[in-house]
Each structure stands twice: as structure tokens, then as C-alpha cells.
Amino acid sequence: MTNNATTRAEKFVVRFPCGMRAEVSEAARFSHRSMNAEIIARLQHSLGNWPEALPQGTSAVPEGNEEAYLLERFRRLSPAKQQALLALLD
What residues does the Arc-like DNA binding domain cover (predicted)? Predict the structure, then answer.
């Protein structure tokens, strides 16, 4: 990118989960790209295949079992997280 293009580019800060920065760095080195170029190339590929890449017709929770699923997930939370969720719902 030229300096002019760099100043016009939209900037967005991303927080990576632990270890992901190293993975991106390794992938970029393998592809002979900067980390930024690697991230952009992967996003463009993902977005270019957007609707086709998503599973179709399947739900994460079987229809009719949503309440049981939520209750099970709620019970697995720590007491502090349970309280935080309840406060959020109020």
C-alpha cells in the first residue's frame, strides 16, 4: 500500500485469543506476506464464500429443546456468571 492508500484505509483493532497471533505470524511467513496481508487475504476468501460456507438447515439446538438447552448451559456457569446473566436479563 502506498502512503496515501494507507491513510485512506479503514483501521480496526482486533484482539486475538492467546496463541492466535503466533499462528497468524507463522501463516504469514509461510505465505510470504505481512500479517496484515495474511489476515486480509483470509477475510476476503471467507467473505467471498460467505453464504456457501455456512451450514444450511441445521440448528445448534434442536427445535423444541431450547429451554432445556439454556437451563443446562446456565447450570454450568459459575455462580458469579449466573448472577451477571440474571442481572442482564432484568
Answer: 9-47
Q: Which domain holds residue 21?
A: 7-49
Please say whether the beta carbons of 31 and 39 come within 8 A: no
Number of domains in the chain: 1
pLDDT tier at 48 (50, 70, 90 boundaries)?
confident
Q: What is the pTM of this model?
A: 0.49
Residue 11 belongs to some domain of the structure:
yes
Q: Is residue 76 part of a domain?
A: no
Helix H or strand E encompassing 31? helix 20-31
Distance (Å, whole) CA 52 – CA 42: 16
State the CB neighbour count (10 A cutoff) for residue 80: 8
Surface-to-core class of residue 41, CB atoms within 10 Å of its CB (0-12 exposed, 13-18 middle, 19+ buried): middle
* Mean pLDDT, residues 76-89 taken together: 91
